[in-house]
Amino acid sequence: MADLSFTATNYDAPGEDVRHLMLVATNKSAKKCDVQNYPEVTLGNAKGHAPVKQGTDAGEAVTLAPGAKAYAGVLATGGQMDTYPVKFMTVGLGSPGGEAEAEKPVRVKMPVTSFEADDGQRVTYWAGTEGLAMRPVTQS
């Protein structure tokens, strides 16, 4: 994760409640790197990371050249009843291939001071384009 920086952007229209976030991983190293599977996103004080949105697995890692970006969509509210305030997000990449110990998650700056999330939240697999990442969560 030392080769990556992360940003989160509100994907909803200005003035609307935050429901959709776009997570961007940027390769800040001088060499290629891969991101695979999906980011382990934890919104606020949730007890675990957001479950993956089914049907978003491209089946292969996204290879990032220096300066290139990978995208993941985050649905913060999926229509569940109980909501809770979110003021921060952490992102982990899990264990590469399951062979190494997972790296410590990093805190990502939020695009707003606070928003509401619920247990219906979901995250997509990493994608090479913004559209591939966001379409599955904005159409749910």
Structure, described:
It is a single chain. The model has no long low-confidence stretch (mean pLDDT 89). The chain is mainly beta. The protein is built from one helix and eleven strands. It has one helix spanning 130-138; strands spanning 4-10, 20-27, 33-35, 40-43, 62-64, 69-75, 83-86, 89-92, 106-108, 115-118, 122-123. 32% of the residues are buried. The protein has a four-stranded antiparallel sheet with strand order 1-2-6-11, with helices on one face. The longest helix has 9 residues, at 130-138.
Task: Name a few traits of the molecule.
mainly beta; 140 residues; four-stranded antiparallel sheet; 11 strands; single chain; three-stranded antiparallel sheet
Short summary:
The chain is built from one helix and eleven strands, in the order βββββββββββα. The chain is mainly beta and 140 residues long.
